[in-house]
Amino acid sequence: MAVKLRSMGFVLICVALLAEGAQAQNCRLSLSQPRVDYGVIRREALVDPPSIALGTRMVQLNVLCEEPAAIALRFTGAANGQGFRFGRQGRFSLTLKHAQLDGRTVEWTQAPGETASGQLLPGQALVARGTGRRLSAQVAIDTHLPADALHVRNQTVLEGQGSFELVSPAAPQNR
């Protein structure tokens, strides 16, 4: 994700940079778009909020396996609490929504016997309960910046980056 902030005009352009694809064992992961553009935000249009939500953007994630497999996903990026760092002060979070495994609704787990919400947390993987050949999900990307991130004198680039990984469900959940 990248943001350009400009003094006087205070233009905010935000782009999410996500890995285009990943491969593990007999599976391949792909995204509908590796970059998400948040458009332009002008500081004068804002009413001095304590933080700025850049809105939710959706990306389609697909995993296709040659043979039925257990599918686990992790997002690797710089951690910021319950999300990932965006610039020095901001953060973004990722949540998998409307997930289907071979046409069935996916129930996510993080540890054996524990149901997970679908939010990808730093250092943790989400495991789809069951096995299948095709997983599809919408990835909701929510980005927040503190309002003072707009107080800059020159053009400034803020970014947040990371990549999706297919991991073995038996792999350690934390890094």
TrEMBL record:
<feature type="signal peptide">
    <location>
        <begin position="1"/>
        <end position="24"/>
    </location>
</feature>
<protein>
    <recommendedName>
        <fullName>DUF1120 domain-containing protein</fullName>
    </recommendedName>
</protein>
<keyword id="KW-0732">Signal</keyword>
